[in-house]
Structure formats: structure tokens, C-alpha cells
Hints:
- By secondary structure, the protein is of the alpha+beta class.
- The protein contains three helices and four strands; from the N terminus they run ββαααββ.
- It has helices spanning about 10-25, 35-40, 45-60; strands at about 5, 10, 60-65, 70.
- The chain has a two-stranded antiparallel sheet. Strands 3-4 form a two-stranded antiparallel ribbon.
- Helix 1 packs across helix 3.
- The N and C termini lie far apart (about 40 Å).
- The mean pLDDT is about 90.
Amino acid sequence: MKERTFGRATRFQVVRAELESLAHRLGPHGKFPPMREMAERFGAGINTLAGALDDLEAREVVYRRHGVGVFVSP
């Protein structure tokens, strides 16, 4: 199955860029909104959102605290 693109970027890339932009606006240790809220806000499925957050976590842009939320890395 071919991945949908938006212009030249895939949905995953668009969501990841939006999340990274949000991280910069929130600042160090800023808390992201709940997953469902972000999925609705960015028009993305939970799996796409989770994948984008996984990528940002691997790049140390964000960190997660189980049961608490997603936060901007210092």
C-alpha cells in the first residue's frame, strides 16, 4: 500500500513537524496535550501520532512518563 502524501510530505512527516514545532513553543519540560486531543488537533490517527512521538523521543526532543504524559526534553 502506498503511503499518502500531502504535497511532498507524508502525513507522518507533517505530524512529526507539527509536534516538533509544538515542543519548541512549550519549552523544556512542557507537557503535551493528551494523545486523543493531539490526534484530533493534527487530524491524525493514534498510530501515526505515536510513531511521530517515537521518532521525536529517539531524537531526544521529547520524553515520556508512563501514566503521566509526554514532555519536552530539556
